[in-house]
């Protein structure tokens, strides 16, 4: 996923269908400096993690 699209999804009030390694996730924040995003699995909101933008896929 590209940085601009990840930022659009993070800023949008509408939930997008995004996965990280096949797991549905919620994008919290996009770090422009190191091309990572802060996400958490939809079924585990306490499990926040930083992942590379390249690991995200929009369906």
Tell me what the structure shows.
This protein is of the alpha+beta class and 59 residues long. It contains one helix and five strands. A five-stranded antiparallel β-sheet has the order 4-3-2-1-5. The longest helix is centred in the N-terminal third of the chain and has 9 residues, at 3-11. It is globular. The model has no long low-confidence stretch (mean pLDDT 96).
Protein traits:
about 60 residues; alpha+beta; about 15% helix
Low-confidence stretches: none
Main sheet properties? 5 strands, antiparallel
How is the largest sheet built, in terms of strand order?
A: 4-3-2-1-5
How many helices in DSSP terms? 1
Rough outline: globular
**Subunit organisation of the chains:** single chain
| Rg of Cα set | 10 Å
Which class do the helix and strand fractions yield? alpha+beta
Strand content: 35-45%
Listing every helix as H and every strand as E from the N terminus to the C terminus, the arrangement reads HEEEEE
Task: Bin the helical content.
Answer: 10-25%
Q: How many runs of DSSP E, i.e. beta strands? A: 5
Mean pLDDT: 96
Question: How far apart, in Å, are the first and last alpha carbons?
Answer: 11 Å
Could you give a short description of this structure?
Helix content is 15%, strand content 42%. It has one helix spanning 3-11; strands spanning 18-20, 23-31, 36-41, 49-52, 56-58. It starts with a helix and ends with a strand.
List the topology elements.
Blueprint: H1 3-11, E1 18-20, E2 23-31, E3 36-41, E4 49-52, E5 56-58
Antiparallel strand pairs: 1-2, 1-5, 2-3, 3-4
């Amino acid at each position: 996923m590209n940085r601009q699209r990840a930022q659009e999804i993070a800023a949008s009030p509408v939930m997008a269908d995004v996965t990280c390694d096949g797991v549905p996730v919620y994008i919290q924040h996009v770090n422009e400096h190191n091309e990572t995003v802060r996400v958490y699995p939809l079924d585990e909101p306490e499990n926040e993690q930083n992942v590379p933008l390249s690991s995200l896929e929009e369906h």
